[in-house]
Amino acid sequence: MSIIQAIILAIIEGITEFLPVSSTGHMIIGSSLMGIQSNDFVKLYTVVIQLGAILSVLVLYWKRFFQTLDFYFKLLVAFIPSAIAGLLFSDKIDELLESPTTVAIALVVGGVILLFIDKFFQRNSIRDSRNIDYKAAFITGVFQCLAMIPGTSRSASTIVGGMSQNMTRTVAAEFSFFLAVPTMFGATAKKIYDFYKDGYVITGEEIKLLAIGNVIAFIVAMLAIKSFITFLQKRGFQIFGWYRIVVGLVILAFLLSGHSLEII
């Protein structure tokens, strides 16, 4: 993977990580179009650059992270379901990552849901994340487990979960951002641990790529988050639903035509 390819993947990650469109699906498409060969470092890179995206949440919402312990306990309660599911089903998740058809179908199904999500939950009344109770946090965390299906989108699943618990779309999106912090830290730590456990060592050039990728992902994610919240308040989720459906159908058409996608 060249520096240019690493930068492009980091831009894709930064734009799509917090949008309900699936960063995994988009990085699969991006890596395939650029001809990036799948290997252990490429797989590590696509996970570790999430740290840059995490930092953008901490910077943009730093005041929210200096709240009562209750705030952290709610994030922990929401994080637990995906942590357990990740440990129990990691092998199955890896198998799903080898299926571009799964990614495409998940994009389309998730897109259809987003077309109607605003109508389903028009009267939601929780307008402040401080009013989210433990039950709502836990159920949102359970919805996050759906993101283990590639193409589903962690952001989309947690936002839908939050809105099902009476959160407005803005509060659900912000809680999704907050929940991303422990979730991404956990996923990154596990990926790095597995990488070294299998006997791999990161070279100096690979460290350079990781550093560049995290910086780019951080900058782009900050812009994406701010734009996303502003857009949500005005327009809602329909455009993301249509976008997912189009991308998913394009992938399916590509596969049905006899082509293949290189899974990262």
Reconstruct the topology from this structure:
Layout: H1 3-16, H2 23-34, H3 40-48, H4 50-60, H5 69-88, H6 90-96, H7 100-120, H8 134-144, H9 154-164, H10 169-197, H11 204-235, H12 238-256
Helix pairs in contact: 1-2, 1-11, 3-10, 4-10, 4-11, 5-8, 5-10, 7-12, 8-9, 9-10
Describe this structure as you would to a colleague.
With 264 residues, the chain is mostly helical. It has one domain (3-256). 74% of the residues lie in helices and 0% in strands. It is built from twelve helices and no strands. It has helices spanning 3-16, 23-34, 40-48, 50-60, 69-88, 90-96, 100-120, 134-144, 154-164, 169-197, 204-235, 238-256. Helix 7 packs antiparallel against helix 12 (238-256). It is globular, with a radius of gyration of 18 Å. The mean pLDDT is 87.
Summarize the structure.
The protein is mainly α and 264 residues long.
